[in-house]
């Protein structure tokens, strides 16, 4: 009987607010250590937390987007543990009555079929500070700028059955949060972090014992960590052992996980209701207002791109990856409405590939949507061929010049004068009498040779359609 | 009802002598016994009391109101290094 892996994921996403969850300290990333703290987030005695309204609103909006139940009344609890980067000795979180319960995240499984991953809950909590252990042999250094930063923890049900499905879920969730603008979800800045609960079972049997893998902070590591853990558990059981419920830490350098055994006691969190915070109540009006602020979601945009612009599902998928990219595409189509499919190709295949090479996001593209539209216009009006246009695009990215200026400067204007084209074709025919004879003797394959020769003579500037047409006629003799 | 007083003390970072543990153990047991008698009450249809006062959480606007006050805030810290707090080395 074959093995099956069962995966549930916990994602900690930073809610993108100006200030921390419970105090008016800035959340700006990369500030000088400990300059964004105050008595509240330092856990000084007698200080009282006050929740940031934006945190409640953004987490509720996220819950609505996944079709979850929003609890108009939710409560906060304390999770108690001792660690130097947690100055209060407890984390404020929501255990007993979180703001969002249930919900669905839609993904495609490995066969391309739609499937939904059930969400157990989303709750609000605060982040801890940052510990650094590598600067000294004797002490750890603590920066508390991150202490009190708002997080939403998104807990899935164990609904994923392969590492690829887990990655698909994370990507879908990541995209959703960015569309909603409820998290910047920048993984390199630790704004989207993942813990995985992994167990294996023989197909059809009840759930096995799970291990929790912590510290997996890229899509690639998630896949590696889950595959490693699956293999570890299968080998363990097949060798007659049993999986113990434990927390394991993923080491992305060594490509392995190691047990955090001995830390079990530290998981006795002794939760209790947070006495400093009365229940959070969102009024009907506020909930309606939040719901009304819901932007167009990725799957809705995808469907609209297919129906409005006639795009393939693949192109629609690519272009609805991010809000910035979709906005660029719509600006492009508005400026050059003639051929939305062509616009999609040029954006998705040509521009994006070039931006990737220079490590630039679409929002920072040196070629704006209207720049690219004017390039497409020059293809449409036959000033240049598609092939030449690719060179022009390269030049635009390098020089920052306008399309027409580049065409002028490089003398790229397409030759559409039919008598000039005829002259060049005649020249090629005269220069290659042997091939001409063979062609006329029935060797049709040589047509391509003649096209190539003409294009070479014209440096690719002759209108390809006209060359084809005239060549066919003139080669006949 | 059996409880491990030493474990609870360890979790709370409180050092207990054996004498103290001997005294506190039965006291904790009796407190838990009291809670157990409360838990025996059927509260199925009683709405939850989320907070002793009948109030809801006031919310704050998302505007930065605190500026850098590191020097004053760190004045009471026992050990510092270049603006970072230092603690005895912790490794996971």
Quickly describe the structure.
The complex is a heterodimer of chains A (477) and B (92). With 477 residues, chain A is of the alpha+beta class.
Give the overall pLDDT of chain B as a whole number. Answer: 89
Distance between the ends of chain A:
72 Å
Numbering strands along the chain, what is their spatial order in the largest sheet of chain B? 2-3
The helix-strand sequence of chain B is: HHEHEE
Largest interface: A-B, 54 and 38 residues
Oligomer: heterodimer
Measured as a percent range, the helix fraction of chain A is 25-40%
Strand content of chain B: 5-15%
Return Rg of chain A in Å.
Answer: 30 Å
Q: Give a short account of the largest sheet of chain A.
A: 10 strands, mixed
Give the count of structural domains of chain A: 3
Report the strand count of chain B: 3
Strand content of chain A: 15-25%
List the uncertain runs of chain B.
none
Write down how many β-strands of chain A occur, each being a DSSP E stretch of 2 or more residues. Answer: 18
End-to-end Cα distance of chain B: 34 Å
Overall 3D shape of chain B:
flat
Structural class computed from helices and strand pairing of chain A = alpha+beta
- Shape verdict of chain A: elongated
Average predicted confidence as pLDDT of chain A: 93
């Amino acid at each position: 009987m074959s093995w099956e892996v069962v995966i549930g994921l916990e994602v900690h996403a930073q809610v993108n607010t100006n200030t921390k969850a419970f105090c008016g300290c800035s959340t700006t990333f990369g500030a000088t250590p400990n300059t964004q703290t105050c008595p509240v987030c330092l856990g000084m005695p007698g200080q009282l937390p006050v929740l940031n309204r934006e945190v409640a609103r953004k987490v509720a909006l996220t819950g609505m987007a996944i079709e979850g139940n929003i609890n108009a009344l939710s409560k906060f609890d304390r999770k108690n543990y001792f660690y130097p980067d947690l100055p209060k000795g407890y984390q404020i979180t929501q255990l007993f009555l979180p703001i969002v319960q249930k919900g669905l995240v839609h993904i495609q499984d490995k066969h391309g079929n739609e499937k939904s991953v059930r969400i157990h809950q989303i709750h609000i909590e605060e982040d801890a500070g940052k510990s650094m252990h590598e600067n000294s042999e004797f002490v750890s250094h603590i920066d508390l700028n991150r202490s009190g930063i708002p997080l939403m923890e998104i807990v899935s049900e164990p609904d994923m059955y392969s590492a690829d499905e887990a990655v698909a879920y994370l990507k879908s969730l990541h995209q959703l949060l960015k569309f909603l603008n409820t998290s910047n979800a920048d993984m390199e800045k630790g704004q989207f972090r993942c813990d995985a609960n992994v167990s294996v079972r023989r197909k059809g049997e009840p759930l096995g014992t799970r291990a929790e893998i912590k510290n997996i902070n890229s899509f690639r590591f998630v896949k590696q960590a889950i595959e490693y853990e699956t293999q570890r558990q299968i080998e363990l059981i097949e060798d007659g052992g049993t999986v113990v419920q434990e927390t394991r830490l993923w080491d992305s350098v060594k490509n392995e996980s190691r047990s955090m055994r001995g830390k079990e006691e530290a998981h006795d969190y002794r939760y209790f209701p947070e006495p400093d915070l009365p229940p959070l109540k969102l009024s009907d009006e506020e909930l309606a207002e939040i719901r009304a602020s819901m932007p167009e979601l990725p799957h809705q945009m995808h469907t609209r791109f297919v129906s409005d612009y006639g795009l393939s599902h693949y192109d629609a998928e690519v272009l609805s990856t991010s809000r910035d990219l979709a906005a660029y595409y719509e600006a492009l189509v508005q400026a050059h409405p003639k051929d939305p499919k062509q616009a999609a190709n040029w954006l998705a295949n040509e521009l994006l590939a070039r931006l990737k090479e220079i490590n630039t996001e679409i929002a920072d593209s040196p070629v704006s949507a209207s720049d690219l539209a004017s390039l497409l216009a020059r293809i449409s009006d036959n000033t240049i061929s598609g092939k030449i246009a690719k060179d022009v695009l390269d030049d635009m990215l390098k020089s920052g010049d306008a399309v027409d200026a580049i065409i002028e400067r490089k003398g790229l204007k397409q030759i559409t004068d039919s008598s000039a084209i005829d002259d060049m074709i005649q020249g090629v025919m005269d220069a290659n009498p042997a091939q001409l004879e063979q062609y006329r003797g029935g060797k049709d394959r040589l047509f391509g040779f003649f096209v190539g020769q003409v294009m070479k003579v014209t440096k690719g500037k002759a209108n390809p359609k006209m060359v084809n047409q005239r060549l066919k006629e003139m080669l006949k003799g | 009802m059996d409880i491990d007083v030493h474990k609870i003390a360890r979790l709370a970072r409180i050092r207990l002598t054996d004498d103290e543990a001997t005294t506190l153990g039965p006291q904790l047991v009796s407190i838990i016994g009291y809670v157990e008698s409360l838990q025996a009450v059927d509260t199925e249809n009683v709405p939850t009391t989320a907070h002793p006062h009948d109030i809801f959480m006031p919310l704050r606007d998302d505007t930065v109101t605190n500026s850098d006050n590191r020097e004053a805030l760190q004045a009471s810290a026992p050990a510092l290094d270049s603006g970072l707090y230092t603690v005895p080395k912790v490794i996971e």
